[in-house]
Specification:
Rossmann fold, seven-stranded mixed beta sheet, OB fold (Dihydrolipoamide Acetyltransferase, E2P), 22 strands, alpha/beta, 3 domains, single chain, binds S-adenosylmethionine
């Protein structure tokens, strides 16, 4: 073994202390968006490095789950190293894998799903297909939610004493109270950046106060921007803590003048402390109050608060995979659970050959789904507001018509503990489980296996390049 060079500290065999510099070789990527190395028999996590990189890092924390460190220098980039594109890559945390070649990201995502399935206790583990990645994995997000804040995160390269009293951007990871003043974003749709710059300039010129998390007040709270990739329509959703027309109208007018590409501008009002862009009250200042997107040949209306897949190109491929796995035959009925604005159901069962029934808990999304069905001439679809758990429990009393195929696309938490049993009792011939949190989903798959179902397919897609988020379509059949 070569002696350590005099310039770089040797990797200690004992456990390094907080603040100490270490030299390690990155072994793998972790599901929380970290690069993982080993030191003195413990796991060391850091961001901004790729498997195979030899790096110098400073230990920030020593805990029960191992050590956390900050990257100081990539001494020798490994075969999976890439140069981050974004100037905020080390700080923002939004896309923590920018320093990793895209192919290696896809391999890591596949391995995580394989490991989750292998450790799930499933008797029959399906083979995991290669992850379907993007050809051009940049500027893919059709929606961004930026926060206004009265406390700005000061980046390392900035001089001391800079004005930190205003920010519009993204929350710095681990800092609920500080926001990075976003100058560029490599994953947002291209027009998003200019909208952020204009909104920031206007807010400052017009002396509008940003949200102060500590005092829980401030007019400007969020700037949510959405774009229909296929239609070019752009929605701006400005979240404020009060309607305040005398202050908001001049801001909105100037924003629209500077950005004629914005096709609709909505103001959502919420006085709640929660850091989410929600509408307790709504005012449409310009345009129809929604945008349209085309997916798999169908047109969807998307209103400010309804869920829509954030990566249009990959969502289209997702629809394709779900359709293949569902394998709907003429005359069969489809039940679309957690249906959002009806995207999956309408793409799969939009023809008169099928009956479609969808359930979703967010009312505006259901209204969108109904409108989307009408706009696409789908007459055999019904969308209802309902919590999937309640719907399936009610089904035990015969409230639901039978369906041959069921699509479930739950949020990250997966299915409610009562849902698998009710799902298994539906008598479908196939369940297609779309998961944005495959590790969590394996618990549901195991429960369904115990109820007599087998997981026969696992087809992952990358909907979120440069982030650790994974999406996987699992197919289940009765054994
Ligand atoms: C991952 S999204 C899927 C949306 C849709 N399938 C699509 O592809 O556009 C999950 C959806 O489940 C809804 N949801 C969350 N919890 C629910 C529940 N308990 N019952 C019904 N819908 C729920 C959310 O509002 C969201 O629209």
């Amino acid at each position: 073994m070569e002696p350590p060079s005099p310039e770089t500290p040797a990797t200690p065999l004992r456990l390094p202390r907080k603040g100490e510099e270490v030299e390690v070789v990155v072994r793998a990527l972790g599901e929380r968006g970290h690069a993982v190395a080993e030191i003195a028999g413990r796991t060391l996590r850091l961001k901004g490095a790729a498997p195979g990189d030899r790096v110098r890092a400073r230990v920030l924390r020593r805990g029960r789950r191992g050590l956390e460190a900050r990257l100081l220098e990539r001494l020798e980039p490994g075969p999976a190293a890439a140069d981050p594109r974004c100037p905020h890559a080390g700080t923002c945390g939004g896309c923590s894998f920018q320093a990793v070649a895209y192919g290696a990201q896809l391999e890591a995502k596949r391995r995580w799903i394989e490991e989750a399935l292998a450790g799930s206790g499933l008797a029959r583990v399906p083979e995991v297909a290669p992850v379907l990645g993007m050809e051009e994995p940049w500027h893919y997000r059709n929606k961004m939610d930026f926060s206004f804040a009265s406390r700005r995160w000061v980046e390392e390269h900035e001089p001391e004493g800079v004005d930190a009293s205003f920010a519009l951007g993204l929350h710095v990871p681990g800092r609920w109270d500080k926001v990075l003043d976003l100058q560029a974003c490599s994953i947002a749709f291209p027009e998003a950046e200019a909208l952020v710059h204009t909104a920031r300039r206007l807010a400052r010129e017009q002396a509008l106060d940003p949200w102060d998390v500590h005092a829980a007040r401030g007019l400007l709270r969020h700037l949510v921007v959405r774009k229909g990739l296929r239609t070019g329509e752009i929605l701006v959703d400005l979240i404020t803590d009060a309607l305040a027309p005398e202050r908001v109208e001049p801001f909105v007018a100037a924003l629209l003048e500077a950005h004629p590409e914005v096709t609709t501008l909505v103001q959502g009002v919420t006085a709640r402390a929660a850091k989410v862009a929600q509408h307790d009250e709504e005012r449409v200042h310009h345009g129809p109050g929604f945008i349209r997107e085309v997916l798999a040949g169908r047109t969807f209306e998307i209103s400010p608060t309804s869920f829509f897949q954030t990566n249009t190109l990959q969502a289209e491929r997702l629809v394709g995979v779900v359709a293949e796995e569902a394998g709907l035959r003429p005359g069969e009925r489809l039940l679309d659970l957690y249906c959002g604005a009806g995207t999956l159901g309408l793409c799969l069962a939009g023809s008169a050959e099928h009956e479609l029934l969808g359930f979703e808990v967010v009312e505006p999304a259901v209204q969108d789904a109904r409108r989307n069905a009408r706009a696409n001439g789908v007459e055999h679809a019904r969308f209802e507001v309902g919590d999937v758990r309640d719907v399936l429990v009610a089904q035990a009393h015969g409230a639901l018509p039978p369906s041959e195929v069921v699509v479930v696309d739950p949020p990250r938490a997966g299915l409610h503990p009562e849902v698998p049993a009710a799902l298994a009792a539906l008598g479908a011939r196939r369940v297609v489980y779309v998961s944005c949190n495959p590790r969590q989903a394996t618990g549901d798959l195991l429960r369904l296996e115990e109820l007599g179902w087998a997981t026969v397919g696992a087809r992952p897609l990358d909907l979120f390049p440069h982030t650790p988020h994974t999406e996987c379509v699992f197919t289940l059949e009765p054994r």
